[in-house]
Design a protein that fits this description.
This protein has 328 residues and is of the alpha+beta class. It contains six helices and 19 strands. It has one domain: Anthranilate synthase (4-Layer Sandwich), CATH 3.60.120.10.
């Protein structure tokens, strides 16, 4: 028997779990409904607002026979090849030098694709990235998305909050260098500034693996009675997905990237009736169509960036999700 994911529904699996849950929205609201669990979607754009799928059901599901009706691809995407991306990176480096900061530059890549086996692709993402938030979303307003995010924006359990600074990327045997440490410290300092009215416990910096990639990570914990979404909106977008200073980095992104990030680098996840929350930055993600996918990838740029290495980083991130896909 087939299991079709209808519009405004989501299948998801939390980090550290091998169980998928299916949630069907009974309504789409601008704020969470009291006493119910909601799935939160927040686009990247500064002028966007979170919206909520008030869940009619949230139950374990076998995704092996999951199906979704994929739409035709009608976008007119201007491809950003290696030369064009490197030119954008060079502009970003100049801007970072001028403002003594960081810019996260991204691109959307159109990839022709055979017919996907949705269920096996989700199972593969879950197996490859056990500490990621894995999901398949069918949104009436934003389309069909799949991803495996390594980055927590905000978690809340019984009044205890947690977030992370995750930045800097290496692969193979390459050692982290000053460029990556500077990236990560920019994110960590920004998070602490946004939490200046809380008493925050900060971990040491350490490596966080994501398949063949490695990142630098610092953890933050604090206790607070305020609502999770207040802190989520304080933190979004961190310099891990936008840059710093925030306004100048955002202006550069809008002027230079040349496309709408939509849900990429926004956040998504669960807020339940007890105000516990599991919210994740929407990274390592793609938008699905009948005969292709759009993969969204990016990287942090600062004054020490090497344009060729930045291009290679986006290629590695693209393959991290494409290599997990299965086909009919």
């Amino acid at each position: 028997m087939s299991n079709v994911l209808s519009a405004n529904s989501v299948v998801y699996s939390l980090p550290g779990s091998d169980v998928f849950h299916k949630a069907v929205a009974k309504s789409v609201d601008p704020s969470p409904s009291a006493g119910t669990k909601s799935f939160v979607l927040r686009p990247f754009a500064q002028n966007a607002s979170p919206f909520f799928f008030s869940m009619d059901a949230d139950e374990p599901v076998d995704v092996g026979n999951l199906e979704v009706m994929l739409p035709d691809y009608t976008a007119k995407l201007t491809a950003v090849d290696r030369k064009a991306y490197i030119q954008k990176v060079e502009k970003a480096i100049e801007q970072c030098q001028a403002m003594n900061g960081k810019i996260v530059l991204s691109r959307s890549i159109e990839v022709p694709m055979r017919t996907l086996n949705i269920g096996n692709s989700l199972i593969s993402l879950r197996a490859r990235y056990p500490q990621a938030f894995v999901y398949l979303l069918n949104s009436h307003s934003h389309g069909i998305w799949m991803g495996a995010s390594p980055e927590v924006l905000l978690e809340k359990e019984e009044g205890m909050y947690a977030t992370m600074a995750l930045a800097g990327t290496k692969w193979g045997d390459a050692l982290f260098e000053q460029k990556e440490f500077d990236e990560q410290l920019t994110v960590a300092r920004y998070i602490l500034a946004q939490l200046e009215d809380a008493v925050v416990e900060v971990s040491d910096m350490y490596e966080h693996p994501f398949g063949a990639l490695r990142h630098l990570r610092t953890d933050f914990r604090w206790e607070d009675e305020r609502e999770a979404l207040e802190f989520a909106e304080r933190l979004h977008p961190t310099p891990a997905v936008c840059g710093f200073p925030l306004e100048r980095a955002m202006n550069f992104i809008q002027e230079v990237e040349g496309y709408n990030r939509s849900l990429y680098a926004g956040y998504l996840g669960i807020v339940d009736s007890n105000e516990n929350a599991h919210l994740f930055v929407n990274l390592r993600c793609m938008q699905l169509f009948r005969d292709r996918v759009l993969v969204y990838v990016g990287g942090g740029i600062n004054a020490l960036s090497d344009p060729e290495v930045e291009w290679e980083e986006t290629e590695k991130k693209k393959e991290s999700v494409l290599s997990a896909l299965h086909y009919e």
